[in-house]
Amino acid sequence: MRSFLLEVSLILFFLLKTTNGDVLFSSLPRSLFVVASLVEGRVLKAGEDDISVTFGSNQTVTNQADESYKKVKVKLCYAPVSQIDRKWRKTNDNLKKDKTCQFTIYDKPYERIVEEFKWKIEKDIPTATYFVRSYVYNDANEEIAYGQTTNNKKSDNLFKIQGISGRHMSMDIASVCFSAFALLSLVGFFVIEKRQAKVKG
């Protein structure tokens, strides 16, 4: 009896969580198409290169009217290979806890037309392998549909971005010069000390 009550409590807790504003990715229809124009095999550079994205409703998948579609966001998302041993990028079916797509690159009211935009890769985007995903939101700002450039396993149509390391040639040269100056100063100080000791002796 006690185990039965425990099971019922767990089921009620799960239902409460899923109906209390939490949206599960697995519950969303893939009713958008998303295409990113990229050169295969080319590594994109943060702060320099652009990504062209085209998206819209996938009429072959959805039969529903899109009156509930109010806003669309397009996001840059980590591919599985760049999530390994990185809990801060971990995928979670609960979208409030999901950390796959951390960079919003487009955020506007939904239009019933195919849209295209160009996004310049921002300088703070880290080095990783990515894909592009779009979400549609309703009036309550909840995700109700999605689309992405890759397959369900997130294994194809991926691309790499090389982030800015923060190290520059001028800084490296300055560092070497400073180290050399410090070493020469130390040697000079040692020589002067030795000469003064001889004079006193």
Automatic annotation (TrEMBL):
GO terms for biological process: nitrate assimilation; response to nitrate. InterPro entries: Transptr_NO3_Nar2 (IPR016605). Keywords: Cell membrane, Membrane, Nitrate assimilation, Signal, Transmembrane, Transmembrane helix. Residues 1-21 form the signal peptide. Pfam families: NAR2 (PF16974). The keyword Transmembrane helix applies. GO terms for molecular function: nitrate transmembrane transporter activity. It comes from the Eukaryota. One of its GO terms (cellular component) is plasma membrane. Involved in nitrate transport. Belongs to the NAR2 family. This is High-affinity nitrate transporter. It comes from Mikania micrantha.
